[in-house]
Structure to design on (217 residues):
């Protein structure tokens, strides 16, 4: 079995040398976490959660998406304590919350939820990508991390206590990839463009969200 794997690897590398004479680089992503609330544990008491769709790239005019891994994670962790926003309806089948909620939920929206529902928490999430990042909102650490990055994504999760308006959990995970080129020291010109095998910003978005969910207990 080991011999067969070795043969396959040799064939793969020899094929690459034919199709990619300039070489191949394997670029692993760098992942970093930022914590805005010093807590990673959910409230498992007799409380209720609303799971809002995941927003993308700071858009305030998007319905977002109920990402499969996000939905499955919170349903497994919280069971009947959590309800998707699209399923939060009255006995007549009408939505109890008739407006979109962005990751940066407003004070007015929080007041509505407090006055018109019995919810205790709302789960908010967002993914931002390199070409759509608002660089003015990045912290200094991320500015340094992304200076020479060719692929970047940041996933955010915030679970807001609607009674106190204080986040129970708030954290982010950023992923970035840098591609290095081989250059001639004398001419300062790239002698070849290595073919990089790596995830793009959108693939990193999925990965950073997965890693972020693993931090929640």
């Amino acid at each position: 079995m080991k011999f067969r794997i070795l043969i396959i690897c040799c064939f793969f590398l020899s094929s690459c040398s034919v199709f990619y004479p300039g070489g191949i680089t394997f670029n692993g992503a760098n992942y970093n976490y930022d914590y805005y609330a010093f807590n990673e544990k959910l409230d498992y008491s007799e409380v209720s959660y609303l799971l809002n769709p995941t927003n993308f790239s700071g858009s305030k005019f998007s319905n977002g998406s109920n990402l499969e891994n996000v939905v499955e994670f919170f349903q497994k962790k919280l069971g009947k304590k959590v309800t998707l926003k699209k399923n939060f309806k009255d006995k007549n089948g009408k939505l109890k919350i008739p407006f979109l909620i962005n990751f940066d939920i407003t004070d007015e929206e929080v007041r509505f939820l407090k006055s018109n529902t019995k919810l205790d928490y709302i789960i908010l999430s967002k993914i931002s990508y390199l070409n759509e990042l608002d660089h003015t909102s990045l912290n200094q650490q991320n500015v340094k991390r992304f200076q020479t990055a060719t692929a970047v994504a940041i996933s955010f999760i915030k679970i807001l206590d609607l009674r106190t308006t204080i986040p129970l959990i708030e954290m982010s995970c950023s992923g970035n990839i840098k591609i290095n080129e081989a250059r001639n020291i004398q001419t300062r010109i790239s002698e070849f463009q290595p073919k990089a095998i790596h995830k793009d910003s959108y693939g990193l978005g999925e990965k950073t969200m997965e890693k972020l969910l693993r931090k929640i207990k």
